[in-house]
Amino acid sequence: MTIRYAVPRFIAIAALALVTSTADAETIRVAIGTQDTTINCATGGLLIRELHLLDKYLPHTGKYKDATYDVQWKDFTSGAPMTNEMVAGKLDFGAMADFPGSLNGAAFQKAGRKSIFITVLSGSVDGSGNGIVVPEGSPLHSIADLKGKTISVPFASTSHGMLLRAIKAQGWNPDTDVNIITQAPEVAGSALKANKIDAHADFVPFADLFPYRGIARKIYDGAQSHAPTYHGALVDAAYAQKYPEVVVAYLRAAIEANSLIAQDPEKYSLLIQKTTGIEAPVDYLYHGPLGIQTRDLTWKPEYRKATATAIETLKLLKKTDVDLDVNTFIDDRYIREAFKESGLDYEAALKNYAKQPLIANDALTGKPIRDFNDVTQVWLDNEAKVRNYASPAEAFAALGKIEQSGGKPRAVFVHDHASGLKLFANQAWYVNDSHGAITAFLLKTGADRYAQQVSGSVVDYAAAKTGAAQAVASR
């Protein structure tokens, strides 16, 4: 099969591949490293594997007419060991975040070779996804309370970079004003439970998974740093040059995975839960409509900047001394071709910064929801689809009746009134105003400020639910 590429330099690569590679009658390995529990990599790994999407797109015509494929999958809990296997020639593709991905590029360069970042899978131009949590019963409520405290974080991760930026924004010295220790997420969960650390900074999905499991409370979201972050996929550059059509096939599979989860986020959140053990509401928090991060396969300028920042920060941390050229390390030619072959407009997607939209009717009134600032969602245990409500007051009142009848929610979702950030309702603070409205906030400080503006009172989730039920009863 001859591919006509829109970008001239890609034509040269494809032509070179036709000359230097004889795929006929050969077995082509497609070895893909995944991070299943890092759920933002799902559309570049777990879903492709579980739904057998890659088989649909691997080429079988032209120079690939007689080729067979040896597709291999290997799951990792972090990017570093995946990079080791890619550099060792045991993997062809790998999915990871901006920081470990930059270390991947540096490791290849040190070995006299090259890897390339070929697509974004999911990200946030503001930094959502990374976060800082404290033990559930902690008296700490914001990052300003962390001075002099012990904070653990996976070193050299994207959340480490967020933590350093957040500390800098406070005007603190990270070496003297806080005690930063290295700790993997698996260890941090136990440390939070046992109150052995004051706070923990982590990446997707742990800053939301630990609160969902009731062992922590989020006091800082990466969006407060306004530092872009993303997860994406890399490939060995030599492999991409030899088999450009296979790289495009992988990306077309990722595009379909992205489309499927957009169409039915509840269904595929349950699949992610079944495969990883990460509870479906956490997966939906990220992948569902108005989610914490945007599933975005385009190289927005903010993600290019995030890569440059990652390289600079890793050098500052003395994790690498390699100078990577972001302009050649990021290569968008393959994803552009995958969009084209999938009948999609890459340039339009590149300009689109919107989250996955919510197109829904209010579960109480049946009317279309138009204002999403205070939209509230309820996912019941025995229901396949999430219920949508126009406001927390409306949702909490309905939930009270549901629970009285024996119903049980998997999760309730609200949105921070100031930023729009999607939250678990039991992790938020609320302001009750004199008109009966209930407004959600991530931070107690934000709720306190708003309460002063509207002469309202700040309450927790339990009190907000009780207040909504009483308001309905008094009507």
TrEMBL record:
InterPro entries, per database record: Solute-binding_3/MltF_N, SsuA/THI5
Keyword Transport: yes
Pfam families associated with the record: NMT1 (PF09084)
Domain Solute-binding protein family 3/N-terminal as annotated: residue spans: 27-279
Keywords: Signal, Transport
Secretion signal, residue range per the UniProt entry: 1-25
Domain of life where this protein originates: Bacteria
Functional note: Part of a binding-protein-dependent transport system for aliphatic sulfonates. Putative binding protein.
Family label: Belongs to the bacterial solute-binding protein SsuA/TauA family.
Name of the protein: Putative aliphatic sulfonates-binding protein
